[in-house]
Amino acid sequence: MDKPILQVALDLVELKRAVEIAGEALEGGADWLEVGTPLIKSEGMDAIREIKKRFRVKTLADMKTIDTGNVEVEMAAKSGADIVIILALSDDSTIQEAIRAAKKYGSEIMVDMINVPNPVERAKELEELGVDYINVHVGIDQQMKGMDPLEILSNVANEVSIPVAAAGGLDAEKAANCVSLGASIVIVGSNITKSRNVVESARKVREAIDKSWKSGKKVELKKRELDEEIREILMKVSTPNISDAMHRARAMRDVHPVVRGKKIVGKAVTVSAFDGDWAKPVEAIDVAGKGDVIVIKVSGDNAAVWGELATRSCINKGIEGVIIDGAVRDVDDIRELGYPIFAKREVPNAGEPKGFGEINVKIECGGIEVNPGDWIVADDNGVMVIPKERAYEVARRALEVKKHEERIRGEIEDKGRTLAEIVELYKWEKVQ
Ligand SMILES: O=C([C@H](O)CO)[C@H](O)[C@H](O)COP(=O)(O)O
């Protein structure tokens, strides 16, 4: 196999920034530039013209065509696309029309396998139809659910003889694995274009794929434990990142950090308690395990259901933190212990341990429904609740938000730009 191609996908919506990032990616070792679908939708064919004219390298247009193959390929090819990307899910007649148009205008066709139910079979059919490249692609939304192009890559690569590309959430390590599994083109988007130092990130991928190609070794794919991965990702992101990822939903109201500067991530052990009745909140310490978060909904906030001694017990058990929609006391001691407690009110008086209430039931805490096992992330900004069914997806989306902000932060700090300028705020104000 020839040296693998590094194709960088410019999935931005601002052409000016895309041009700048493209230059940096080429400096870091990229070979081909892909004008991403969001950029094409935002700026039209001009984006392809601009990238092709500026850089004179092989330029791809990710049209994601599913119908009228002829018209869309003609537009992209005339604008300078050397390769036009269309969808494998298209009808064969669309694929054939796309191939005919590409031949007419001197371009090639790459077919994106996103969402194809039987990838190996379809890849063989597409090769037969005469496409030039197959792209084993897991879309951005699919990646958020944990899907990975590596799982099917070698099956496809072993069955066709045209070049196979791989795309979908690749970083340096995964890109190298793709090469070892048979990809001759590696497509990387956000892990290069959203990074603060695009040159450096592109260089890392370049080095990793070249090393994998030279060594010729096959990799063993390892599956990680899901909870471990969720926790690791959530530790990297802030509650504002999570809020953005969840479209601003599921932030608790009126629950604040007693100890500032602490961040907690863990699965909820829920408690429903009555004002001042601290029996169930304290018994929950025995139910919770290392790394859990105790989340308590109290029916009032006149008397505390939590204090210093309960806090010390949590420390002994390695419990991550406590969230109380109710009152807490001994806050001076708790601050000295530096233990993360988030509560609604601070009061001096405790109530009585009568034993009313329940542990591990559905509760509404800070105005948000919390079920046992939901993920809780809390920091100085507040408390976010992530339903357990969506935990991996939300964690991944929050990480994307963080990556996106990293690049923008870099442009503000290093290039002296303003936020409005970078994201073209005026252009994207809602038309009334
Ligand atoms: O094709 C893509 C996606 O559907 C958005 O248009 C991306 O270019 C492709 O997934 C590569 O980007 P990353 O997944 O961010 O590496």
From TrEMBL:
It comes from the Archaea. It catalyses: D-ribulose 5-phosphate + formaldehyde = D-arabino-hex-3-ulose 6-phosphate. Pfam families: OMPdecase (PF00215), RraA-like (PF03737). Keywords: Carbohydrate metabolism, Lyase. InterPro entries: 3-hexulose-6-phosphate_synth, Aldolase_TIM, Bifunct_HPS/DMK_prd, HPS/KGPDC, OMPdeCOase_dom, RibuloseP-bd_barrel, RraA/RraA-like, RraA/RraA-like_sf. The keyword Glycosyltransferase does not apply. Its EC number is 4.1.2.43. Residues 5-205 form the Orotidine 5'-phosphate decarboxylase domain. CDD domains: KGPDC_HPS, RraA_family. Belongs to the HPS/KGPDC family. HPS subfamily. This is 3-hexulose-6-phosphate synthase. It comes from Geoglobus acetivorans.
